[in-house]
Amino acid sequence: METVIGRPRPRSQSRLGSALTGTFWSAVATLRLGLRTVPAAPALMAIAILPEFAQHAAEVHLGMYDSRAAFRAAGDDPLRWAFAYPKIAGFVLAILLVARFQALGSVREALLIGGGNLLRLGFAIGLTLVAELPFDRLKSMIEPPEIDIALALVSGLIQAGLLVYIVGALLDDRTNSLRGAFTVRWPTALLMTFLAALVFVPAQALHTGNHVAAFGQPAPIVWGLMLFDSLWVGIMAACLGTALAVGYAAGPRWRGWTERPGRAFTAGRPRPAASSAPATFP
């Protein structure tokens, strides 16, 4: 019997069955560990929560929740955007730090990023931004929607591979490389993208619905909804960061799974994917 994502399976299990089973348990680990972050690392979540609430305070001051029309009219107000940039930065930073927290097992270690690692991480993020520029340029020049969809697909695949490279740099994995991200770790890129989407799509729907529910409501209800929404954004960041860490730790490759989700986090240090032999598919 071999083990895939912590569950025994007979050698007769198909590749598809193994992939589906592993993906399912990766999703379970993402939600379980992500929600566990709420009591375990509230300081990291606060990095996303506080800027979000500050922007909501500005939006209430502008009267944006008086009606849907008022929200649209003030959408580009300079005051709102003055809070929007810190909010976005805080959200992304919280995601990255939660991923480190899940891998390293300590808020303190998650915050202590070495200079060399910062350089590698900055290079990885910069490379991701540069790689997107040609596609943005082409999309602005080409009108047929079919070409636009094809460009978006190619861009998405490239960004998925670069995501593995970014997270590898973030988690101090010295086996991380661009070549590996687009070859042996390509299935890892797909799993990480899937887990992130699994978290983001429903969470963003509730985030948007919460704004809509506030339109035209009395001030106490609006403030209550905005407080809840800010906390919800913190939970989103926690679960998204966990999705990246779980997907990277599971490390599916073409031959099988590298690690059981959650197992790499219990030892306090992530085990590089290359250091353990993957369980081969039958």
TrEMBL record:
Alphabetized UniProt keyword annotations: Membrane, Transmembrane, Transmembrane helix
Highest taxon, organism lineage: Bacteria
State what protein this is by name: Uncharacterized protein
Start and end residues of each stretch annotated as Disordered: 261-282
Where is the sequence biased in composition, kind Low complexity?
269-282
Q: Where are the transmembrane segments?
A: 81-99, 111-129, 149-171, 183-201, 221-250
Keyword Transmembrane set for record: yes
